[in-house]
């Protein structure tokens, strides 16, 4: 029962992050910020789960390393988009 109480708030925060990501599709920077918020919520969920089960915290360090790499790649895409198109509107970036 306690695990459900501890996990309910981060899951609600995760769902709010997903909703924010879906609704903010205009600017790439707002999309990247909501993705980082989702990653922080996932880290919080993993941290609570590992603390509850008395596991080691090595996976959280690896998860943080990958999330930092994801953030750096997102910022590099943002910089290249601003340099080529002049703005960060996601609709101006034609994928096709």
Structural account:
The chain is mainly α and 96 residues long. The protein has a domain at 28-91. 78% of the residues lie in helices and 0% in strands. The protein has 3 helices and no strands. The chain is elongated and about 50 Å long. The model has no long low-confidence stretch (mean pLDDT 86). It comes from Liriomyza sativae.
Structural class: mainly alpha
Strand content: under 5%
Q: Give the overall average pLDDT.
A: 86
Helix content: over 70%
How would a crystallographer describe the biggest sheet? Answer: none
Number of strands: 0
Low-confidence stretches: none
Gist of the model:
This protein has 96 residues and is mainly alpha-helical. It has helices spanning 2-23, 28-52, 58-85.
Topology:
Blueprint: H1 2-23, H2 28-52, H3 58-85
Helix pairs in contact: 1-2, 2-3
Pfam family, one: Oxidored_q2
Main location: mitochondrion
Enzyme class: translocase
Overview features:
elongated; 96 residues; NUOK/Mnh_C1-like; single chain; mainly alpha; transmembrane
């Amino acid at each position: 029962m306690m695990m459900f109480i501890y996990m309910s708030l981060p899951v609600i925060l995760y769902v709010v992050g997903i909703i924010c990501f879906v609704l903010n599709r205009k600017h790439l920077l707002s999309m990247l910020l909501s993705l980082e918020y989702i990653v922080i919520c996932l880290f919080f969920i993993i941290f609570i789960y590992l603390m509850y089960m008395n596991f080691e915290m090595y996976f959280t360090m690896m998860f943080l390393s990958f999330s930092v790499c994801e953030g750096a790649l997102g910022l590099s895409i943002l910089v290249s988009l601003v340099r080529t198109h002049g703005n960060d509107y996601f609709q101006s970036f034609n994928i096709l």
